[in-house]
Automatic annotation (TrEMBL):
It is an enzyme of class 3 (hydrolase). Its EC number is 3.6.1.22. Keywords: Hydrolase, Magnesium, Metal-binding, NAD. The keyword Transcription regulation does not apply. InterPro entries: NAD-cap_RNA_hydrolase_NudC, NudC-like_C, NUDIX_hydrolase-like_dom_sf, NUDIX_hydrolase_CS, NUDIX_hydrolase_dom. Residues 154-279 form the Nudix hydrolase domain. This is NAD(+) diphosphatase. Belongs to the Nudix hydrolase family. NudC subfamily. It comes from Nocardia jiangsuensis. It catalyses: a 5'-end NAD(+)-phospho-ribonucleoside in mRNA + H2O = a 5'-end phospho-adenosine-phospho-ribonucleoside in mRNA + beta-nicotinamide D-ribonucleotide + 2 H(+). Its cofactor is Mg(2+); Zn(2+). CDD domains: NUDIX_NADH_pyrophosphatase_Nudt13. Pfam families: NUDIX.
Amino acid sequence: MSFTLKDVPLLSRSTIDRAEHIRADEQALKEGWAQALLLHVDRRGRFRRTGGALALEPAVDYSAEPSSNAVFLGTDPDGRHLWAIREPELTGDLTDLRALAGDLDDYTAGILTAAMALLNWHDKAGFSGADGATTATSRGGWSRTTEAGHEEFPRIDPAVICLIHDGGDRVLLARQHSWPPTLFSLLAGFVEAGESLERCVEREVLEEVGVHVRDITYLGSQPWPFPRSLMLGFAAVGDPEEELVFSDGEIAEAHWFTRAEVREALEQGDWSARESGSRLLLPSSISIARTIVESWAGV
């Protein structure tokens, strides 16, 4: 049984223009700053809300010109420049990207995924990986450059995430040691150097649960800025009769669930409904895992 994603994953949606052509134009960035909006993000990835909406403040309230610590995210549908900046501390009504989940609209998703990924990279990129020289932000925060002119760009860590089914009405879901007792999700892992995505799916599934998979199919992708990953979604077929072996220590348990059990769990909500007493809880809507499971279950 093959299937496709029923929706675009939540964090893959956006209504902002990333405006790549503006990033290296310092004059355009300065001119746009006058009407720009600025998102403040603290060290824990939290930001302010106003009346339940994302709090974007006038950039000129922070500084007269673009700050070297701010990153340019693009432009909103009205053409205003959007920026983000890291703050040591914030006060007020704070939340984070994970907590927003179902309350996340496409505009907010576009802002937050870019802001979190860029700011997280800058936190770790103060020195060049080539020679250890100090780097400074350039291109509106989309690169960092040394005094000698060596330029480095944001790092993205690709990871596969795969729904394993039996070709019929059963799906294999797993739980990590640190998760609540009934929270299960798809198997996932980072792509290794010199490895194809399909080979990564095969290796990760075999390492984590001891199952050989076939008929690997690409479904879609989603940015995952925790801190800077790109999740690449797949489906594959496995044999429920094959013994489950947790050889790499990441998985606490895994079970084959029926489509009916998955549909019932989806009706319960996400992992935050863990007081419901359900045998099976599933990831929140912010994760591509949720979209993949919903698509397989046909809900």
